[in-house]
Design goal:
The protein is mainly alpha-helical and 124 residues long. Helices cover 55% and strands 5% of the residues.
Length: 124
C-alpha cells in the first residue's frame, strides 16, 4: 500500500512540474523527499553565496577564480551522468583536495542536499 502511495506522489510531482525528486540523506533510509520551488530558490541563494565564485552561476566554471583553481564544470552533461548524488554530497561536505573547501561546518545536511539537487538542475 505504501508503494502505491509513493508512486502516486511521484506521478503528482512529475505531472505538476513544480516539484523535483531528489536523493537526500533521508532517501538513504528509504524515503523519497521533494523540493518545492521555495527550497529551489533557497538552494540557488546558497549556491550563489558559496559556490558561484569558482563554479560560476551557470556551473560552467568560467570565472577568474574557477580558471585559477581549475574548478570542475559541474554543468557538463558527461560529468553529471557519471557522478552520483552521494559523491556530489560528499564533495561539498568534505571538500576536494586543497582547492575546494569543505562545507560541513558552514552548511547543514539539508542545505547540502538542496545544493546537490540544484547542481543537477545545471546540467547542459
Amino acid at each position: 500500500m505504501k508503494l502505491i502511495a509513493m508512486r502516486g506522489a511521484i506521478a503528482l510531482a512529475i505531472f505538476s512540474g513544480g516539484l523535483c525528486l531528489r536523493e537526500s540523506s533521508q532517501a538513504r533510509n528509504g524515503s523519497v523527499e521533494t523540493i518545492n520551488p521555495v527550497n529551489v530558490a533557497d538552494a540557488r541563494a546558497v549556491f550563489v553565496r558559496h559556490c558561484a565564485n569558482c563554479h560560476g552561476r551557470d556551473g560552467r566554471s568560467k570565472t577568474t577564480k574557477g580558471r585559477q583553481t581549475h574548478a570542475r564544470n559541474i554543468a557538463d552533461a558527461g560529468w553529471q551522468n557519471d557522478v552520483s548524488d552521494e559523491r556530489i554530497f560528499n564533495s561539498i561536505n568534505n571538500g576536494r583536495g586543497a582547492k575546494m573547501p569543505r562545507f560541513d561546518k558552514k552548511l547543514s545536511e539539508s542545505e547540502i542536499d538542496q545544493l546537490v539537487s540544484y547542481v543537477r538542475q545545471l546540467k547542459r
